[in-house]
Amino acid sequence: MSIPSPGPKPVLLFGADSSGIVVPVTSAPPDSDSNPVTSEGIETLAYLYGFNGATWDRVRVANTFKTASVTASGATAIWSPGAGSFFRLMGFSISVAGDLGSAGIQTVQLRDGSSTIFKNFVCYLGAALAAGETTVFAEDMGQGYLSAAAANDLYIVLGTTMTAGAVTINAWGTQGATA
């Protein structure tokens, strides 16, 4: 005697009606191109979430891009999110092309306000790089690094002044009250 298979389990979605009451939603054919999936006036939406090892977070997509070319030693602000806003650094690339005047080491750091995020990318430079020679550092940070405090600037810090050429950074991420 065989036991019949119960078949696939139904998937039940929930949505909220216009008064905010949570109700079951069933799939329905599209009403129109502008209202693709509804049932009794309830629109169903999907959000992308990723597991961070402990909890589920919404997936972010970079929408803010910053570029700067820096020649002076010390800290230079490259991203100033403003009052009440955080930056979320999701990736960057740094290229070093030029010379220091004499052979030496160029160190590059990224800082969140006064706290170092990434430190001492090291580039050995001669008195003059060969024409077209460039050193590149790049980092894809996935869902990114959230600034420690609102209104903190993201800085690039050079250890030595460039006498020719520049250190160029491209940074990307999100910005906002919760970034």
Précis, in short:
With 179 residues, this protein is mainly beta. It contains no helices and 14 strands.
Question: Which structural traits does this protein have?
Answer:
179 residues; mainly beta; Jelly Rolls; 2 domains; four-stranded antiparallel β-sheet; 14 strands; 0% helix; elongated
Question: What can you see in these coordinates?
Answer:
The protein has 179 residues and is mainly β. It folds into two domains: 13-46, no CATH class; 60-176, Jelly Rolls (Sandwich), CATH 2.60.120. It has strands at residues 13-16, 22-25, 38-39, 42-43, 49-51, 56-58, 64-70, 74-79, 86-99, 104-112, 115-125, 135-146, 154-158, 164-176. A four-stranded antiparallel beta sheet has the order 7-14-9-12, with no helix packed on it. It is elongated. Mean pLDDT is 79; it is low at 28-32.
Layout: helices, strands, pairs:
Blueprint: E1 13-16, E2 22-25, E3 38-39, E4 42-43, E5 49-51, E6 56-58, E7 64-70, E8 74-79, E9 86-99, E10 104-112, E11 115-125, E12 135-146, E13 154-158, E14 164-176
Antiparallel strand pairs: 1-2, 3-4, 5-6, 7-14, 8-13, 9-12, 9-14, 10-11, 10-13
Number of strands: 14
Could you spell the SSE succession in H and E letters?
EEEEEEEEEEEEEE
Give the uncertain stretches in residue-range form.
28-32
Q: How many helices?
A: 0
What would CATH call the architecture of the largest domain?
A: Sandwich
CATH class of the largest domain: Mainly Beta
CATH topology of the largest domain: Jelly Rolls
Shape: elongated
Mean pLDDT rating: 79
Distance between the termini: 59 Å
The number of distinct structural domains comes to 2
Instruction: Specify the structural class.
Output: mainly beta
Radius of gyration: 25 Å
